[in-house]
Design goal:
By secondary structure, the protein is α+β, with helices and mostly antiparallel strands. Helix content is 20%, strand content 12%.
Length: 65
């Protein structure tokens, strides 16, 4: 059986691909917890979280009972 190292890699990977509904370019809003840039523009009115903090927050609220 051959093992292909690129099995899980997508055929074309684009580093600039962003989810729909996010800003096209800088400036991005800061995460309210860690101050890292988020995927949202600075004009976003809600409390913005970076993907890492959003994932951690979801885990905390899911486990809080």
């Amino acid at each position: 059986m051959d093992v292909d190292d690129t099995y899980c890699e997508p055929p074309e990977r684009t580093a600039s691909a962003r989810p729909a509904g996010t800003a096209e370019g800088p400036p991005y809003a800061e995460c309210v917890l860690c101050r890292e840039p988020t995927e949202y523009p600075e004009s976003t009115k809600s409390a913005t979280l970076c993907p890492v903090c959003a994932w951690q927050e979801a885990g905390r609220t899911a486990c809080s009972g």
